[in-house]
Design goal:
With 536 residues, this protein is mainly alpha-helical. The chain contains 24 helices and no strands.
Length: 536
């Protein structure tokens, strides 16, 4: 979830409430629900997208990573843009652009067009969540904001739960295009309601005028350097496997651009008058550790949301609907745990809750390494439920931990960076999982094929048994031998696939385990003060 920090810093005026604030909360929650839904709704539809556009499963995964990266890029700039150009105006532009881009995604005719529209959709969606939080903060008095953010939090948590199931149902019964087209009417309704119901406080207008008088400008150079770094990094991770890594001139050039952009951004952000992000935040032990933990958590959350449905469809023959349903109970567990952790977090130091959450997630990933052809639907439901127990133990306490020691004027950037870390981590997680899957499947297949030789007694015995089976089914001797060889080849490929997915889950388990010591080095926070904004 996103944090409750918002544009406008610490100096907030109580707004003139001519509109029922609860109505504003519902309207904003609907818009955010739609945006967050798009991080998961397409995951179970990737097989349909792959078939419909005649692309590989690796290329189909770019539909997810492109959205996440562009979303993260916009997040780091959303706070300043909303302050400088008007919160309501920017929000409406983002909402309209997101809706139009969603419709264009549904009408995409090939992979490049789909990726371009997904990129635009991600750019627009990245500004919606933090601005929504700002609108809620200014629409409610302090004593009511907790309840308002509960509504907001439910929308953010429920969307990923419904996303896979809804995406699977639409893909199975209609078309993958409807995973995006469904945003059209919802976005139009949300735009209309926001236009008429949401008001901008007078203090924000005054602050905007003050920024104009002082000539405070957006740090375009810093933003472009960071955008180039993240974009080039994603290109390297997405295309590395298919381009044979550094044997490819394209990967070498993309890597060089990535390194140069990162190297150039550091001195610029340290010396710029109004940097797009305060890089000193990332250098601090407390906030830097929180960002790394969120990167890892985002990687696991998004990677599993994509690859669990994928293995269910490819190796177990599940429909997209049932693959999505396997994830939904875990989302319900997460919702219930959010309520529990919200109460416990005022009693227990965040670093211990985060460490426990990372341990649970690591165990959930390790449990998935028991993958084999005999597993039933219940195994995947329970595994996702265990993951659902761990996620809130990170998402909620990390707010208190990351905001600890920050000045009021730093909370906006902290909110943007934590949210960007979650999305960037998700994109990196999908790319790493995709590369591990492709590389290890080839490796396992090569090792298994080494045993398929006439000198291997076990292979010859299996070959004779399978030949007899096909011969008894009516095949000629020559056909029985050909069918037996084909069957063994199919089994080798399937076994290599299972082993490769096991390696993916081992990798994710290690990633989560590595965040445990990072959590434990965090400082204790003042639990009485609440430690900061809302949940993530």
């Amino acid at each position: 979830m996103a944090t409750a920090s918002a544009t406008g810093g610490s100096a907030r005026a109580e707004p003139t409430r001519t509109t029922n604030p609860w109505l504003v909360a519902v309207v904003v929650a609907v818009a955010v629900f739609m945006e967050v839904l798009d991080t998961t709704i397409a995951n179970v539809a990737l097989r349909y997208i792959s078939g419909g556009l005649a692309i590989s499963s690796d290329e189909a995964s770019w539909v997810v990573t492109t959205y996440l990266v562009s979303n993260a890029i916009t997040l780091i700039a959303s706070s300043f843009i909303a302050q400088r150009y008007g919160r309501k105006r920017v929000y409406l532009i983002c909402l309209a652009t997101f809706t139009i881009a969603s419709i264009l995604c549904g009408l995409a005719w090939d992979l490049p067009s789909l990726l371009i529209f997904r990129m635009i959709q991600g750019f627009a969606g990245g500004g919606m969540v933090p601005i929504s939080q700002s609108i809620l903060t200014d629409s409610f008095p302090k004593e009511k904001r907790g309840q308002a953010f509960a509504i907001f939090g439910i929308a953010v948590v429920v969307a990923p739960v419904i996303g896979p199931t809804l995406g699977g149902y639409l893909s199975d019964n209609f078309s993958w295009h409807w995973c995006f087209l469904i945003n059209g009417p919802v976005g139009a309704l949300a735009f209309t309601l926001v236009y008429f119901l949401v008001q901008e406080p007078e203090q924000l207008r005054k602050k905007r005028e003050e920024m104009r008088r002082k000539g405070i400008r957006f740090d375009l150079i810093g933003f472009l350097l960071l955008a180039t770094f993240l974009g080039a990094l994603e290109l390297v991770l997405d295309r590395g496997q298919t381009e044979d890594w550094f044997e490819s001139g394209f990967i070498v050039v993309a890597t060089t651009i990535c390194i140069l952009a990162l190297a150039g951004s550091i001195p610029w952000l340290l010396t710029a008058r109004n940097p797009v992000i305060d890089i000193k935040l990332l250098a601090s032990r407390q906030f830097g550790s929180c960002v790394i933990v969120m990167l890892a958590t985002g990687a696991i959350l998004i990677a599993t949301t994509q690859y669990v449905p994928q293995v269910l469809q490819e190796n177990y023959g599940y429909t997209a609907t049932w693959a999505g349903l396997a994830l939904s109970p875990g989302g319900l567990v997460t919702m219930m745990m959010m309520l529990i952790v919200g109460r416990v977090s005022s009693l227990v130091q965040p670093k211990y809750l985060i460490a426990i959450g990372a341990t649970i997630i690591s165990l959930a990933m390790y449990d998935m390494t028991r993958l084999n052809p005999d597993l039933n639907f219940g195994f995947f439901v329970w595994s996702r439920a265990i993951l659902g127990l761990g996620l809130p133990l990170i998402f909620i306490p990390i707010t208190s931990a990351s905001y600890d020691g920050l000045r009021p004027d730093q909370t906006d950037q902290a909110s943007a960076l934590i949210n960007a870390a979650r999305n960037t981590g998700g994109s990196i997680g999908v790319s790493i999982a995709s590369n591990v899957l492709a590389h290890r499947e080839q490796w396992h297949q090569s090792r298994l094929v080494e045993h398929i030789v006439p000198s291997d007694p076990a292979y010859m015995e299996s070959m004779r048994t399978i030949q007899r089976f096909f011969a008894q089914s009516g095949a000629s001797a020559a056909d029985a031998q050909s069918q037996a060889m084909g069957y063994i080849g199919q089994q080798v490929q399937q076994q290599a696939s299972y082993l490769a997915y096991i390696d993916v889950f081992y990798t994710l388990a290690i990633v989560s385990a590595c965040t445990i010591p990072l959590a434990l080095i965090l400082r204790n926070v003042d639990l009485k003060s609440g430690g900061g904004g809302g949940g993530h």
